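Reopening: Dolichol-phosphate mannosyltransferase still failing for me.
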Amino acid sequence: MIVVPTYNEASTIGDLLDGIGACRDQAPDEVIDVLVVDDNSPDQTQDIVRSHPGFGGWVHLLPRASKDGLGAAYRAGFAAAVRAGYDVVVQMDADGSHPATAVLPLLVLVRTNDVAIGSRYVPGGRTENWPGRRRALSWAANTYARTVLRLRTHDATSGFRAWRAEAIAAAGVPETTSNGYGFQVENTWRCERRGLRLAEHPITFVERTAGDSKMSPGVAREAALLVLRWRFRELTRRRTTRPAAPAVVHDGTARA
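Support: Ran it again with your exact input. Result attached.
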């Protein structure tokens, strides 16, 4: 199940569903469904999902009462997918920044790992159509999180991931507290500390061409403060375990 949180993504959600449909056509033996978790978008996002040819078959919709944050939407979507019995849950943005063509490689990678991450910061990964300031901010935020929390994963802030269903529980994703983009960092931190196997697959992250970014100074501040809080908690509890060093595979995949 691919979980896609949305809020005002009417301009992009149809193209994403079409892209995932093409992946399904390339892997007819795989069961690949989509769950759109919409926070009551006023721009008719839900209407577009319901009008898609796959709706009622492989496209599903989980409408929510109000805009409640990225983390809350993902927790609701993950819980629904696990209850329905899916053995792998993929998280993916609706704005077209995550290439649908990378879904199948992630599904292959998660067969031998607990979590497979679509990564911008391993060999072969990159960003496209980002201005220099945005590129610098993303790199700085990722470096900050990795440094403070002593993470081995190269792209700790990536929101494009495939999870084994049992890894969601093992990492404690349902108990996470962050609601903004810190949700990605929190899960990376939890996975590494709990000894889960993480692997990274290079992707090209493309800047959205329609709709509005959900990133804001408030969201960035929340994530930065949470990182400090998590590290402080570790230090006060005198936790001394460290994650193993990553092994880099020839195809550009990095395993933590």
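The chain is about 40% helix and 15% strand. If you still see a failure, please send the error message rather than a screenshot.
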